[in-house]
Amino acid sequence: MSQTILEVAGLTKRFGSVTALNNVSFDLHAGEVHALCGENGAGKSTLIKCLSGIWPGGSYEGEIRVNGQVANFQSIRDTEKAGIAVIYQELALVREMTVAENIFLGAEPTNRWGGIDWNKIYTDAHRLLKQYGLHLDPAARVGDLGIGEQQLIEIVKALAKDTKILLLDEPTAALTETEVEVLLKIIRDLRSRGVTCVYISHKLDEVFAISDRITVLRDGTSISTLDAAATSKGEVIQHMVGRKIEDLFPRRCAEAGQILLKVSGLTITDEMEDRARLDNISFEVRAGEVLGIGGLMGAGRTELIMHLFGAYGDRVAGDVQLKGKHMPPCTPSQAIASGMMLVSEDRKRYGLVLDKEIGFNQSLASLTTLKKGIFVDQLKEANRNWDLFKALRIKAPGLETIVGTLSGGNQQKVVLAKALMTEPDVIFLDEPTRGIDVGAKLEVYELINRLTAEGKAVVLVSSELPELMGMSDRILVLSSGKIGGEFTSAQAQQHLILEAAMAHS
């Protein structure tokens, strides 16, 4: 049996009257990859903050033991001394600095005169990058690199500090499939070198590809610890949500009605580029229908729906009709007034005001419809906010809760509530389930079914092929800004969609 190098025993963490962790226990074996799974709000991030010293010893009940000794971490520096490092979903890199400078930030080697030894910084950075198979220039500016490369630099930065336990919190949320494979390869390599990893992810394919054991949290409580080789996705999901789920993609097809959105020969240029970003795009969406839009990263999926919503690009050719009427290039406010709404893939940047309340965020796009004279009818606003708050089952004490304190899944529900309050006829959903758990995903899928049952048209952009195939009535595949193919739900197969995605590459 492997040596236990870290134990969590009866950990309880409270925030006022809210119990975020309730008697959580789990152990970590040397050289293993141990996954933590659970719905948004299950307590995973709170547990990581206790393990990393953000919530110091004394602010919680229970014990954390490292190599059998009770740890009393008071800061992140204390955990680093114990050989523990954390990679958060929000990267902690300085974009204006080089790769090498970021790797050794705060731990710069010095020369005999007490100054920074720049030669050693770049030599050691090159050695570390080469050691982990990363072909990156130590002198490259971090801000010029892709998100996947930045994520890998974070890991190298942690390993440069002689890390023995690496905690990874949703490390692949913003990565492409190729970048995910590189990251998983590095984690396997770390395991072979004796580095122990705690891996938090909603993506169960990754969890089963990389993990030795899986601990499931639900409502702040540790439910079970399972051997990955002896369990299944279905069992893990059942532990996560507390019930058996028969269908991960419960699409209920509605009867297609009139054409609500028709796009013909649309060609769009970027303000910063000379070439067309989207070229000769044509499609239509009917009432009660889900049109899925697929394609590789950079194919133009987000740019297409951002343009239709009035937030991107110059239209140089083509026509857009909404409910049979010509729709000229518009602003987002004009698009909302006409009956279109967008749920952005980047909820924190484009969808929410994080330091404001739930109610403020939900009604922000609908204030013109909530007026009574020149003022907002606060009673009407509160009633509509409360109706959506209950309908979407947002887990929060009330509408006054600050959005930035919510879990990712509940933040996404607030974004969806804001969109629904505008009462759109056509709703664009750009990666609506990115970074949220299985239970929250199912609620989003049921919401899509409800919208189409009400005669709305849904345009669903997704990088996850099973989701795209499971929830779409038709799929339009973009390839390098052009249409690579179109499939009905009956025709759609993964290899055909991938072929279409690479048709113009």
Number of strands: 22
Strand content: 25-35%
List the quaternary state of the chains: single chain
Main sheet, how many strands, which sense, barrel? Answer: 6 strands, mixed
| Low-pLDDT sequence parts | none
Mean pLDDT: 88
The first-to-last residue Cα distance is 50 Å
Instruction: Estimate the helix proportion, in percent.
Output: 25-40%
Report the structural category: alpha/beta
DSSP summary: helix tally: 17
| Global morphology | globular
Rounded to an integer, what's the Rg over CA atoms? 24 Å
| Lateral arrangement of strands in the main beta sheet | 6-7-8-3-9-10
Write the layout of secondary structure elements.
Layout: E1 4-15, E2 18-29, E3 33-37, H1 44-51, E4 61-66, E5 69-70, H2 76-81, E6 84-87, H3 99-103, H4 118-131, H5 147-159, E7 165-169, H6 177-192, E8 196-200, H7 204-210, E9 213-218, E10 221-227, H8 233-241, E11 259-269, E12 276-286, E13 290-295, H9 301-308, E14 314-322, E15 325-326, H10 332-338, E16 340-343, H11 347-351, H12 358-363, E17 371-372, E18 375-376, H13 378-391, H14 408-421, E19 426-430, H15 438-453, E20 457-461, H16 465-471, E21 474-479, E22 482-488, H17 494-501
Parallel strand pairs: 3-8, 3-9, 6-7, 7-8, 13-20, 13-21, 16-19, 19-20
Antiparallel strand pairs: 1-2, 1-4, 4-5, 9-10, 11-12, 11-14, 14-15, 17-18, 21-22
Helix pairs in contact: 13-14
Walkthrough of the structure:
The structure is a single chain. By secondary structure, the protein is of the alpha/beta class. The protein has helices at 44-51, 76-81, 99-103, 118-131, 147-159, 177-192, 204-210, 233-241, 301-308, 332-338, 347-351, 358-363, 378-391, 408-421, 438-453, 465-471, 494-501, and strands at residues 4-15, 18-29, 33-37, 61-66, 69-70, 84-87, 165-169, 196-200, 213-218, 221-227, 259-269, 276-286, 290-295, 314-322, 325-326, 340-343, 371-372, 375-376, 426-430, 457-461, 474-479, 482-488. It has a 6-stranded mixed beta sheet with strand order 6-7-8-3-9-10, with helices on both faces. Strand 14 (314-322) and strand 15 form a beta hairpin. The protein is globular. The model has no long low-confidence stretch (mean pLDDT 88).
